[in-house]
Structure formats: C-alpha cells, structure tokens
Write a structure and sequence with these properties.
Layout lengths: L1 E5 L3 H12 L5 E5 L3 H11 L2 E2 L3 H5 L5 E4 L6 H10 L4 E3 L7 H14 L3 E3 L7 H12 L5 E9 L15 H17 L3 E9 L4 H5 L5 E8 L4 E7 L7 E8 L3 E4 L25 H4 L1 H15 L9 H20 L3 E2 L7
Parallel strand pairs: 1-2, 1-4, 2-3, 4-5, 5-6, 7-10
Antiparallel strand pairs: 7-11, 8-9, 8-13, 9-10, 11-12
Helix pairs in contact: 1-2, 4-5, 5-11, 6-7, 7-11
The chain binds nicotinamide-adenine-dinucleotide.
Length: 334
C-alpha cells in the first residue's frame, strides 16, 4: 500500500516511523508546511517529502494519515474523503462542534472511512479493564477515577491551536471512559486552574482541570488532567466495583511514589512521555487502520465515537465557564 502522511510534528514523525516499518506499507509520502521538518522525517524513514497536502492527495496514495495541528484536521479530512481516500486522523476532529459535524457530514456524504486516533483503545491495560468491567469481574461498577498528567507543558505555540485542556487532553479520558464502561456520560461538572505557567493564561487555557462525570447507570467518574507533573507522564484509570477494584497504568514505571515507610520503591524509570508509554498502542492503531483500508476489519473508532468524546469536552468547557453542572443533552449532536 502507498500511504500519505500530512503533518510531521511530534506525533506525525512517530507515525511516519511506524508506517515506514510496517510490512503492509510499500511506500510513504509525507508533507508539512514546515518543509525542513518533512524532509528530516523523510530522510529518517525513507519516505518521499512532498510540497503540500494537495500533492499528497494526488500522489496515488491508498489512504491518508493526518497528524497536522488540530486546526487543520477538519478541512484535510473533508478533502481526503472527497478524493475517495480512507482517512486516519489524530484526535480531535476539530476545535469545535460545527467543525466536527461538518467533517463527519463530508465523510458520510463520500461514503468514506474515518478512523480517529484514540490509541488508548489499543492499550493492553485498558483492554483488560474493559473485559473485567463487561465480564462482571468487578461486580457493579460504582466509581471510576481517570487521570492524565503530562510531565511538562507543550510548546507555547501549540496551546492556542490545541482547543484547550479538555478538548486536547482529557478527550482521551472521556473516550476511554465510554469504551471501557460501555456507558454514556449524562452530566458533567468541571473546573480548571491557570495558576501555573503564564503561557496557559496567555492562551486562555488552564494547566490543570478536574471533571465529575455521572454515567447513565449512576456510576460516578472523576477525570483530572495537568500539564505540570514533574514526576513524569502518568495516565491511569482506577475502576472500583462492589466485588473488586483494578487500576490501568499502575506498574513499576508509574511516576508515583508511596509516602508509606513500607511502601513499594519509587519508580526507577518513570514514563517520560506519551510516545514511550503508548508506543505499542500507536503501532496497533495504525496496524488496525491498514486492516480497515484492506477491508479486513471493522473501523475500531469512527468519527461518531470522536463526536461523543468531544461533546463531553464541550460540556466540561461550558460547565467551567458557567460554573454549573451541564447535562449532555445541552450539547448538540447533529
Ligand atoms: N493521540 C495522541 O496521543 C496524540 C499525541 C500528540 C498529539 N496528538 C494530536 O496530533 C496532532 C498534532 O500534534 P503534535 O503534538 O504532533 O503537534 P506539533 O505541533 O508537534 O505538529 C503539528 C504539525 O502540523 C503541521 N501543520 C500545521 N498546520 C498544518 C496544515 N494546515 N497542514 C499540514 N500540516 C500542518 C505543523 O507544521 C507541525 O509540524 C494534534 O491534533 C494533537 O491533538 C495526538
């Protein structure tokens, strides 16, 4: 297969490496408005760097992977789908609901394939948690605690284009909460703090956020995120039921130290970032996409799934702005 990759920044250059080494990929073409970045990635992976997204779409590719800045996703999805090409796109589809719904309409009009990059669905821990919840091993689930902590803020230039902490970061927790529990979020109550680095205040964003989410079966969930966790990259989910409780992301690399004198030792090699922590999941999601393109498997995360996660993020932003609980029915879904 010949694959086109649009956007060769942090995650795009990682995807380029995965695609270049995949046995099902015969050739890879890449592009980025930062031509030097695209050339570097091409040189490292054996790909061919092209001058623009237009050139990629016209290069006889079988499918397109979009890893550009979020602000460009919706338009690129529409163009690729309009060209009849299956699309894998990094989350989120767009910075807002109208942009998301517009892109979904374009894909549906074209009868195309759109897979979103919620890679936690391909992580072994989350998959085991899903099996435990759905198989009844925990008994009736009553509490879920989800947490995402980045070790350090992204570059300041990334923030205004990111959509904010709820849409950019916590959207992963919202997606995986639905995927693991099989339930929908019915209400949120969220807040955030910009007391940390000034770049967040300058971007109108928060560096730390918390949301209380009520699921449609009464299960209570919390989701927290921060961009300022000096201990390392920490992504966890704890699920507690009447019979048992389990944790995803709890191992000898979890950047968490027990305060107990007899507790386990501090992690010798805490996870430094998302590329290390989720490398196998990123590989698996692209492998799945290639399987979808070949028609061998169903789409594991289509655009409507991404819309559900974004609606939760939108509800959280509304809750934070208006300082009140927000029902998901308040957020448009079509
Ligand atoms: N799934 C995940 O875990 C994960 C992790 C990181 C980033 N992401 C997502 O991936 C996307 C990229 O994030 P990043 O951290 O790599 O950002 P980045 O800033 O490192 O890279 C973005 C790249 O997109 C390029 N770009 C900007 N506008 C473009 C356009 N119109 N067309 C093509 N390319 C364009 C930029 O030049 C840059 O090289 C974001 O949407 C982000 O939400 C997902």
């Amino acid at each position: 297969m010949r694959i086109g990759l649009i956007g060769t920044g942090r995650i795009g250059s990682f995807h380029a490496g995965v695609l270049a080494h995949h046995p099902g990929v015969d050739s890879l073409v890449v592009t980025d408005p930062d031509a030097g970045r695209a050339s570097q990635v091409a040189a490292r992976t054996g790909a061919v760097a092209l001058a623009s997204a237009d050139e990629v779409l016209a290069a006889g590719v079988d499918a397109v992977v979009i890893a550009s800045a979020t602000s460009a996703h919706a338009e690129l999805i529409g163009r690729a789908a309009g060209a009849g090409l299956p699309v894998f796109c990094e989350k989120p589809i767009a910075l807002d609901l109208p942009g998301t719904l517009g892109a979904l309409r374009e894909v549906e009009r074209a009868g195309g394939v759109l897979q979103l990059g919620f890679m936690r669905r391909f992580d072994a821990g989350y998959a085991a948690a899903r099996a435990a919840v759905r198989g009844g091993a925990l008994g009736r689930l009553h509490t879920v605690r989800a947490a995402t902590s980045d070790p350090a803020p992204p570059p300041a230039a990334y923030l205004p284009l990111s959509g904010g902490l709820f849409r950019d970061c916590l959207v992963h927790d919202f997606d995986i909460l639905r995927w693991v529990t099989g339930r929908e979020v019915s209400e949120v109550y969220a807040t955030g703090s910009d007391a940390g680095p000034a770049i967040f205040r300058a971007a109108g964003d928060v560096d730390t956020a918390a949301a209380l989410l009520t699921l449609d079966d009464g299960t209570l969930a919390t989701a927290t995120a921060t961009r300022c966790n000096g201990a390392g990259y920490d992504v966890r989910m704890e699920l507690a039921g009447e019979r048992d409780q389990i944790a995803v992301g709890l191992d000898d690399r979890t950047p968490l130290t027990s305060a107990e004198p007899q507790g386990p030792p501090a992690p010798a090699k805490p996870w430094p970032g998302f590329l290390e922590r989720f490398a196998p999941a990123y590989e698996a999601e692209l492998d799945a996409f290639l399987g979808v393109v070949r028609g061998e498997r169903a789409n594991p995360c289509d655009g409507r799934e991404a819309l559900h996660a974004l609606r939760i993020a939108e509800a959280c932003e509304l809750s934070r702005a208006e300082r009140r609980p927000v029902r998901l029915t308040e957020i448009a879904e079509a």
